[in-house]
Amino acid sequence: MRKPFIAGNWKMYKTIKEAVELAGSLAGALASEKKKVMIAPPFTALAAVHEVLKDSNILLGAQNMGPVEEGAHTGEISVKMLKDVGVSVVILGHSERRHVYKEHDHLINEKVKLALLNRLEVILCVGETLKEREDGLAENVVENQLINGLDGLQQKQLDSVIIAYEPVWAIGTGKTAMPEDADKMHSYIRKILGKRFSKKTAESMIIQYGGSVKQGNVRELMNMENIDGALVGGASLKAETFVPIVQFDKN
Ligand code: 13P
To answer: Which residue CA neighbors atom 2 of ligand 1 most closely?
Structure first.
């Protein structure tokens, strides 16, 4: 049985004060929640949010990470710095990193390996653009991102990897993939993972869906066989929109 995992990606929003307030509200509202829950505030708020979350059941996530342990990498944040402020999960290969900041699969793979080596859990994001979908390339694109992103990993390391399928055309647009279409891609992702690693590993892995998830569509998405969680952007920025998503089974 795969345990549902709902994660909030706050992107480039929230000052420290705002982040602490929101984290405090979530820790209170979700105190008895049994699902796995994570929030990923911006780097500047991680230390302060860690203080708020440290006795809660909400995990602290980061939105990105540098590809090497330390060195002359102006503007980057290292894996050790993330661990130092209490981060336990890192989102890698988000489409905004891939498309706006031109991160490629090889770089993302370096980060994945480094994060796992340092015992962080990884949420590896994959997903096609609208053009790629229209050109019939969605499965190819996702397959390449998966195979390249997970290159060189041992099967047992997959226990600490979560895949987030986020079709780029559904992010921040209000357009959600139809649950059946999303499930089809999730099933394809599981098939690829099964071939590359093992069927058992693929069956146990959490595959989140991301792209305009909200209270009104989360239940239907989570009811699909291969959708095990959600990576939520916009709707994770307020307790009143994120809490009902986490508690989708109570809607
Ligand atoms: P939205 O929920 O705002 O579409 O963002 C999804 C996302 O990119 C989460 O990582």
So the answer is: 233
Q: What is the DSSP letter of 36?
A: E
Quick: pLDDT tens for 32-74: 999 999 999 999 999 999 999 999 999 999 999 999 999 999 9
Q: How far, in Å, is the centroid of ligand 1 from the Cα of 6?
A: 12
| Structural domain range at position 51 | 5-250
| Counted domains in the chain | 1
Q: Is 73 an active-site residue?
A: no
CATH code: domain of residue 76: 3.20.20.70
Catalytic residue among 50, 94, 99, 103: 94
Q: Which residues contact 249 (CB under 8 A, 6 or more apart)?
A: 219, 222
Q: Which residue has the tokens 């195979």?
A: 147
The active-site residue, picked from 104, 166, 203, 240, is 166
pTM for the complete prediction? 0.98
* pLDDT digit string, tens, across residues 145-196: 999 999 999 999 999 999 999 999 998 888 878 999 999 999 999 999 999 9
